[in-house]
Structures are given as structure tokens and as C-alpha cells.
Amino acid sequence: MLRHQANCLRRWSQLPGWSVGTPRRCRFECARAGGDQASFIGAMHDIANTVAEPLIREINPGASVAS
After folding, report:
1. Nearest to 2, CA basis, from 39, 37, 47
2. pLDDT higher for 33 or 57?
3. pLDDT band at 1 (very low <50, low <70, confident <90, very high)
4. Distance CA 7, CA 4 (A)
5. 4: which residues sit within 8 A by CB, 6+ positions away?
6. Nearest-5° angle of CA 6, CA 46, CA 48?
């Protein structure tokens, strides 16, 4: 998660250099070589782990539907 946040901060820090009205192709840092993609996937996995279990308990997808 920390590496992913560093990637996000790197992009935000470049914002002042962008000119309004100047087209610019956005390149996602998580797609770069050197582990950025792995950092993004790992961060999303960590977030999903904290949310998924309570959500599954709440939804209870294995329960039968009463007629």
C-alpha cells in the first residue's frame, strides 16, 4: 500500500507542470516496470481483504431465499 501511495503522490506532484488546455496523454504509474503494477494489485488486495469478509457475512450469499 505504501508503494502504491508513493506512486499516487508522484503523479499529483507533477500536476503543477501541466498546462490547462494542453492535451496530455495520461500514463498510469501502476503499469510501469519495476513493481508498480504489483504494488497497485497488492494495495487493492489489502483493501479488499478488510472489506470482503464483513460484506460477505452481511450479504450471506449462501442463504436460501424464502418463498
Report:
1. 39
2. 57
3. confident
4. 5
5. 30, 39, 40, 42, 43
6. 125
Name the residue type at position 61: P
What cell was used for 42? 497488492
What's the grid cell of residue 24?
Answer: 496530455
Whether 56 contacts 38, CB under 8 Å? no
Whats the size of the chain, residue-wise?
67
* Cα Dmax for the chain: 61
Burial of 39 (0-12, 13-18, 19+ CB in 10 A): buried
Which pLDDT tens digit goes with each residue over 6-49? Answer: 878 887 887 777 767 666 665 555 455 566 778 888 888 988 98
Structure confidence at residue 15 (pLDDT): 77
Round to whole Å and give the CA distance between 52 and 58.
10
